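Give me the 3D structure for NAD(P)/FAD-dependent oxidoreductase.
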Amino acid sequence: MQDLTRRQMLAGLAAMPWLLPSGLNASVSRARVLVVGGGFAGATAARYLKRQAPALEVVLIEPKSAFYTCPFSNNVLAGMAELDSLRQDYRALQRQQVLHVRERAREIDLQARQVVLQDGQRLRYDRVFLAPGIDMDWQAIEGYDRNASMHLPHAWQAGAQTSLLRRQLQAMNDGGLVIISVPDNPYRCPPGPYERASLIAHYLSQAKPRSKLLILDSKDSFSKQALFQQGWQTLYGERIEWVGRAGDGRVVRADAIRRELVCEFGQRHRAAVINLIPPQKAAEVAQRSGLVDASGWVPIRPATFQAREASDIYVAGDACIAAPMPKSAYSANAQAKVAVAALLADLAGQAPPPAVWRNTCYSLLAPGQAVSIAADYGVQAQRLVELPGSLALSPLQAPLGLRAQEAALAEAWYQSICADAWGQLL
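Predicted structure for NAD(P)/FAD-dependent oxidoreductase (426 residues):
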């Protein structure tokens, strides 16, 4: 019960405005901050920038009128929720006097200190908060590109791809095989594919009882592995099979028309439905702006989350290199708050406050049953590290009551963090 109480505390911290500087001077009110991207990191940043410095000019550059969250999108795939339950809009931010520019940011002109929009318009900035999220690496798997994803959906950016994969699962014949292909690290939401496997297996057990699910993994281990595999065995028996890289689980080629995957050592797999999650990289605006390194992600200065290549650019969320923090919604929200504090301190001519972060990740094994992992992070010797003794993992042997409490906490966390990021009332 003490562990559960700590988890409740961690979930509640998503809404805390920690580490924001005080005594901001007039130079802050004269500044313009452009926030690129309206996901968990970008929306949080825009809201907290304006909340802490109301006179600051905050402009959100986001082409969409609404954002669909990847957290809880697996519920939609399993028929446990509707797609609209994932929808978050920007009306509360607009009421807070955040200007929403509905255009795509193409690149950042670092010399001119301007963000160049897709339509050619240029917006001047004093600081940029860059939170563009991910793009798929369409060069990583032979035969898998944007067109192929219309047949073999990745569903790793929620919305249309989520609906497509859901329709494919509904349309498949009972007895058909489902394959989930998982990339190597790093990628968005490390436990996400395994929660997806759990909930799709639940759907299959209810609607397609003769069907099975195969996970082809580019890794030989994964987040919360023992918890997932124990849950799969208990809940789904032999319905889920996992194959790691050593067993030829890394997919290198895809044939979208034949619905066929080819693995590293030559094994071929055909299936009724294939969810191919490819390797990922920082979104295109980060690439075009020269902010990424050879990994495809943006290196940052750990204490402030400033881009290593440009001190007036702050980067948070999935696009940045913040290992050992995972690329998760909780991380993005926490990183955004610390980066906002550093940005405002910078504008005010103050030293950045000490930086600490937290991440908690919940995963559903089935409706009403969840497991979680949590850890704290800090900066030591100019490196971001997991703080000793902070790791909290669901117990391997746990009564159903505890799994049910974790599921309830997962729902409460989701509602809380969405309200915190987009400013909607619970």
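Residues 2-133+283-422 form a domain with the FAD/NAD(P)-binding domain fold (CATH 3.50.50.60). Let me know if you want a second pass.
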